Amino acid sequence: MTLAFAIRLAEASDLEALTEMVAADPHGTWTRASLEHELTLAWSHMVVAVDSQGVVAGFMVYWHTAGEVELLNIATSPTFMRQGVARTLMAHLLEAATRLGAPRVMLEVRAGNLPARSLYDSLGFVVVGTRKGYYAGEDALLMDRAAPAAGGTPSESGR
Length: 159
What we know:
Blueprint: E1 6-9, H1 15-23, H2 32-38, E2 44-50, E3 56-65, E4 68-76, H3 85-100, E5 104-110, H4 114-122, E6 126-135, E7 138-146
Parallel strand pairs: 4-5
Antiparallel strand pairs: 1-2, 2-3, 3-4, 5-7, 6-7
């Protein structure tokens, strides 16, 4: 079942929920301190997806630097898995890239993270490189795609 989620800027009051999400990732390296740090960076954008009751269902961190947008982290609360949270966050990311005038969006993903890779593939991201052994011996796949043209939709590949 896919629910509707609202996107808003993350706030310090969200840190407990976000910390629980990053702690639930067995491959993750993010901590409360790294989340707090991202809130202080001018080029960092941290947003949360909330359900109709205001419960934080997921979050993402992306940077807008040198005219490009790069996804640094995206996570969904275990309670909200497979309910469209990550897709909603990614749609926001692609729309934000267009608003910011970024020509492309970049990310990296663990080669073995098949659910994430499937989502990124469905949104038109393509593998453009590999970082061998980047994740404790597992490869990282570098992916990117063109940002949607103004007035376009996030599902358009832009290529």
